[in-house]
Amino acid sequence: MITMDLVLMEKALLGLFAAVTVAIVVAKLAGKRFRLPPGPSAMPVVGNWLQVGDDLNHRNLMAMARRFGDVFLLRMGVRNLVVVSTPELAREVLHTQGVEFGSRTRNVVLDIFTGQGQDMVFTVYGDHWRKMRRIMTVPFFTSKVVQQNRKGWEEEAARVVEDLKANAKAATEGVVVRRRLQLMMYNDMFRIMFDRRFESEEDPLFNKLKAANAERSRLSQSFEYNYGDFIPVLRPFLRNYLNKCHDLKDRRLKLFEDHFVQDRKKVMAQTGEVNCAMDHILEAERKGEINHDNVLYIVENINVAAIETTLWSIEWGIAELVNHPEIQSKLRRELDAVLGPDAAVTEPDLERLPYLQSVVKETLRLRMAIPLLVPHMNLSDAKLAGYDIPAESKILVNAWFLANDPKRWKRPEEFRPERFLEEEKKVEASGNDFRFIPFGVGRRSCPGIILALPIIGITLGRLVQNFDLLPPPGQAEIDTTEKPGQFSNQILKHATVVCRPRKL
Ligand code: HEM
């Protein structure tokens, strides 16, 4: 073991020496040719890594933008990281030069989980991406899908309400509502994908799936593997971490295959019908448009991109409603006034509920689930704001900062849904204003917005219709400390919430 480590260390040091030499030469050459964006001065090999550290979250990047400017460059070892912090530059990256900046970077971990970009979310801009996005659109991302599935979402939300009402603890000491909502989100998406649902939180298959997805999320969003990603000579030290990722990837894809995809193949063989999203995807495979690995990576993408992001947003929404009882009451008054006391909110009702829509938008603004969007990348050398952007730079659009910049918003630190009925009443979540782009804009924008908005609206609406949502006894507020990841932002502590049934 010790010999092994010494060999590794020797290799690493030799590699380090070679890399220093190469880096100095490259830096000298590059310095002459390029007009790079501003940023802290970089050291050889490690670049800015030791100065700025690992925690490249939306708030730290906002602080750096204030220091270095609207577009700045960090050299994180071999990776160039360009951070964009104004709506004008966001427009340039996502819209005007949407093709140039329309690729994705992966890192050593995402390479593993996506089979080097055989998926859709993390693949470079090009034919494969176009094909995957086209194949996924009909089964997942149209208003027909919403119309076919919205009753399912309403039913799942109704079951959440029923279960909370049946649980005496929920009304007194409170429960971690997220746990039940997680089951709901899996059911919402697994019904679309496989026409399947899980009966309870105890379902062993649901628990296996949940554990595998949580581990995938933890391993990829962590900052702890940055050193091996940024500095390739240190990669041998990441061996155990990467082995864990490989092992999990294999187990997870097998779980999708054995328990869900195969099942759907059998049903299709019997009925010959195309009923759920997976049937469409398997059709595409049968026609030779994609291979079976692509099929599994589509399942992987939905498990991460759809379920977690929406769940985090609902969780943030509940936390803000608990901490702002006056907003919660106002929302309840709207629901009662528009729908009457007995009608449970449904998807078609949402357009008649402007305050509910504003609560959803305000949650997405202040507590953006993907505050840095999914990292973009330019395959070739590019220009931005007069600067040269070296090929294959990771481009982070700090969407959270755009939506929380006091220069551009009135008291942005306040959770105040009214802003979307008053001074910001024209602003939509779909990106009609580059200050507010929680789902991105343009070619790589989130196609799932069409599902996410109604699911969040229905869920928050039904909870507020049925319960007073309160902090647990003895606690004035829910703790809303953030837990940012590589590009995510979750609540750190899954809150215990008292759900006191309303007396009507
Ligand atoms: C509140 C919930 C959600 C939020 C905040 C969210 C946010 C985002 C963001 C910021 C991006 C990247 C945009 C960019 O890089 O420019 C993205 C991409 C994506 N999202 Fe979502 N999303 C949510 C829900 C969903 C759902 C429900 C689905 C699927 C049913 C989904 C599927 C995807 C896919 C496939 C991509 C990759 C698009 C591409 O690279 O071409 N998302 N999402």
From TrEMBL:
<keyword id="KW-0349">Heme</keyword>
<keyword id="KW-0503">Monooxygenase</keyword>
<comment type="similarity">
    <text>Belongs to the cytochrome P450 family.</text>
</comment>
<dbReference type="GO" id="GO:0020037">
    <property type="term" value="F:heme binding"/>
</dbReference>
<dbReference type="GO" id="GO:0016020">
    <property type="term" value="C:membrane"/>
</dbReference>
<protein>
    <recommendedName>
        <fullName>Cytochrome P450 73A33</fullName>
    </recommendedName>
</protein>
<dbReference type="Pfam" id="PF00067">
    <property type="entry name" value="p450"/>
</dbReference>
<dbReference type="GO" id="GO:0016710">
    <property type="term" value="F:trans-cinnamate 4-monooxygenase activity"/>
</dbReference>
<keyword id="KW-0408">Iron</keyword>
<keyword id="KW-0560">Oxidoreductase</keyword>
<feature type="binding site" description="axial binding residue">
    <location>
        <position position="446"/>
    </location>
    <ligand>
        <name>heme</name>
    </ligand>
</feature>
<dbReference type="InterPro" id="IPR036396">
    <property type="entry name" value="Cyt_P450_sf"/>
</dbReference>
<dbReference type="GO" id="GO:0005506">
    <property type="term" value="F:iron ion binding"/>
</dbReference>
<keyword id="KW-0479">Metal-binding</keyword>
<dbReference type="InterPro" id="IPR001128">
    <property type="entry name" value="Cyt_P450"/>
</dbReference>
<dbReference type="InterPro" id="IPR002401">
    <property type="entry name" value="Cyt_P450_E_grp-I"/>
</dbReference>
<dbReference type="InterPro" id="IPR017972">
    <property type="entry name" value="Cyt_P450_CS"/>
</dbReference>
<dbReference type="GO" id="GO:0009808">
    <property type="term" value="P:lignin metabolic process"/>
</dbReference>
